[in-house]
């Protein structure tokens, strides 16, 4: 699995006509009022220029996409009211100039403003590629009406208003642009250059076969009827969205100054969850209504370990319903996540399975961004309606510590995703799992693992299998990558 990443935070520049800049003209209007005034040719002839650098790499950032891609850039226009003190949430400690829309709002409260005319080229020799395109400012005007209609329909749909009526004033309210960069695979596209394709395909099959045979030799496999193999497309590339870029210019703007709107050091990921790849909705439990679910996550642009998205986390979030389809009626199990990072797994699971308590744990470095992500998905600005409040919280937990935070005495599930990449921590991880299982044979450990170094990987699973037996499993193949999602229980 590969991810599109911003190398630099995207910049939106508002560029005035050359004649106006040379004349040193002062515009005593906001940008939008200028655009809505047909006689103001200076504003109508202005443009927005979007620029950034992107790369396509694996989750760790050290393996670049080896083939050719035609990336597409899209600009979305949306309205976003400023949060008031009454709307603030204690789980949103990060200071940001702008806050992303929720998953549902991005689908229902934004309109596509513009798409790049030519593809952004990526080839296997690149380490980054420049994205730059311009949009005439006057094209914003018809999109305002489209946005207004969409917002009116949104309010009616969610019963925020009994009838469609205007819900924002473009001259007063804040308008934003969000940049999305995505890959639209062509039917003829290839993951690797043609000369390498045959060898790559043979390597993929051999790698999976070798891992599976080693697992079978060590008796680390589930019963055949409890084992599933899932295959992702070779060209699976995760798209990325910028933080919202505010495009409103305040009164007295000087057109001799190039206005620049820069997003922050974070990017946004919008992820549909619950339906495993290549699995239709009909194959999932009907009462889950998985087609309407999704999460929004903030991720740091740097390659810090704790503050970005990992492949196995995505797989666990999307595929857990294949292992387990719900909790017994009337129960509210306690679920512990170790090494939560930005919180994708527990946040996703809490949306699919809300009748549980979720305790997300990691080192202090992950606390700020994880709590922010919890707030974005469960804060007061979301339209998600719950029958009863859900408990989902972050606790700092060091695996090697001797004292632990105040946590429930018994866990129904312990969830771990992509925490097994470093053999230095194998002993500490296994130790904390055993301590938290506490000998309870009803506790299940759900582990998502991406194979990165076969010798270390087999060492880890050998250690785990001495204490636990795999009950159910899903093997995930994605190009040359292999991942394993298993549900483990204490050995008898």
Tell me what the structure shows.
- The protein has 492 residues and is an alpha+beta fold.
- The chain has two domains: 2-187 and 239-262, no CATH class; 199-233 and 268-293 and 300-490, Rossmann fold, CATH 3.40.50.150.
- It is built from eleven helices and 22 strands.
- It has helices at 18-23, 31-35, 41-44, 103-108, 140-157, 194-217, 311-323, 344-352, 367-378, 426-437, 454-467, and strands at residues 2-6, 11-15, 47-57, 69-79, 110-115, 120-122, 129-136, 175-183, 227-232, 237-238, 240-242, 245-246, 259-262, 266-272, 294-300, 334-338, 357-362, 392-396, 413-417, 444-450, 468-478, 481-490.
- The strands form three sheets. Strands 4, 5, 6, 8, 11, 12, 14 and 15 form an eight-stranded antiparallel β-sheet that branches. It has an eight-stranded mixed β-sheet with strand order 9-21-22-20-19-16-17-18, with helices on both faces.
- Helix 7 (311-323) runs parallel beside helix 8.
- The radius of gyration is 25 Å and the shape is globular.
- Pfam families: Methyltransf_16.
- InterPro entries: Methyltransf_16, SAM-dependent_MTases_sf.
- One of its GO terms (molecular function) is S-adenosylmethionine-dependent methyltransferase activity.
Summarize the structure.
This protein has eleven helices and 22 strands. The protein has helices at 18-23, 31-35, 41-44, 103-108, 140-157, 194-217, 311-323, 344-352, 367-378, 426-437, 454-467; strands at 2-6, 11-15, 47-57, 69-79, 110-115, 120-122, 129-136, 175-183, 227-232, 237-238, 240-242, 245-246, 259-262, 266-272, 294-300, 334-338, 357-362, 392-396, 413-417, 444-450, 468-478, 481-490.
């Amino acid at each position: 699995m590969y991810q599109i990443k911003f190398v630099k935070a995207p910049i939106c520049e508002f560029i005035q006509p050359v004649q106006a800049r040379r004349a040193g003209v002062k515009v005593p209007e906001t940008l939008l009022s200028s655009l809505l005034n047909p006689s103001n040719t200076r504003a109508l002839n202005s443009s927005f220029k979007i620029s950034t650098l992107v790369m396509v790499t694996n989750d760790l950032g050290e393996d670049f996409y080896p083939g050719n891609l035609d990336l597409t850039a899209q600009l979305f226009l949306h309205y976003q009211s400023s949060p008031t003190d009454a709307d603030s949430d204690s789980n949103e400690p990060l200071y940001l100039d702008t806050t992303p829309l929720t998953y549902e709002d991005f689908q229902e409260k934004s309109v596509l403003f513009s798409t790049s005319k030519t593809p952004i080229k990526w080839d296997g020799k690149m380490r980054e590629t420049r994205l730059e395109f311009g949009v005439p400012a006057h094209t914003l005007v018809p999109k305002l009406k489209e946005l207004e209609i969409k917002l009116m329909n949104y309010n009616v749909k969610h019963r925020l208003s009994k009838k469609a009526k205007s819900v924002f004033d473009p001259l007063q309210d804040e308008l934003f642009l969000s940049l999305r960069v995505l890959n639209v695979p062509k039917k003829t596209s290839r993951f690797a250059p043609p000369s390498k394709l045959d060898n790559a395909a043979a390597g993929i099959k051999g790698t999976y076969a070798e891992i599976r045979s080693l697992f079978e030799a060590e008796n680390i496999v589930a019963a055949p009827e409890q084992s599933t193999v899932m295959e992702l497309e070779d060209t699976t590339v995760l798209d990325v969205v910028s933080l919202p870029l505010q495009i409103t210019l305040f009164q007295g703007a000087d057109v001799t100054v190039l206005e620049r709107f820069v997003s922050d050091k974070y990017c946004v990921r919008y992820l549909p969850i619950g339906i495993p790849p290549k699995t239709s909705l009909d194959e999932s439990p009907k009462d889950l209504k998985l087609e309407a679910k999704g999460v929004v996550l903030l991720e740091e642009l740097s390659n810090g370990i704790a503050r970005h998205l990992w492949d196995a986390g995505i797989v666990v979030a999307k595929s857990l319903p294949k292992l387990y389809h719900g909790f017994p009626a009337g129960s509210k199990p306690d679920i512990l996540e170790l090494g939560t990072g930005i919180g994708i797994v527990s946040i996703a699971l809490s949306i699919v399975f809300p009748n549980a308590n979720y305790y997300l744990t990691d080192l202090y470095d992950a606390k700020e961004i994880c709590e922010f992500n919890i707030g974005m998905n469960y804060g007061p600005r979301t339209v998600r309606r719950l029958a009863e409040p859900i408990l989902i919280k972050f606790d700092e937990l060091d695996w090697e510590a001797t004292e632990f935070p105040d946590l429930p005495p018994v866990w129904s599930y312990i969830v771990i995703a992509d925490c097994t990449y470093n053999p230095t921590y194998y002993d500490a991880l296994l130790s904390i799992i055993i301590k938290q299982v506490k000998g309870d044979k009803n506790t299940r450990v759900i582990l998502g693992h991406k194979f990165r170094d076969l010798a270390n990987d087999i060492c880890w699973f050998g250690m785990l299998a001495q204490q636990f037996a795999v009950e159910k499993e899903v093997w995930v193949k994605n190009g040359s990558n292999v991942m394993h999602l298993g549900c483990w229980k204490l050995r008898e």
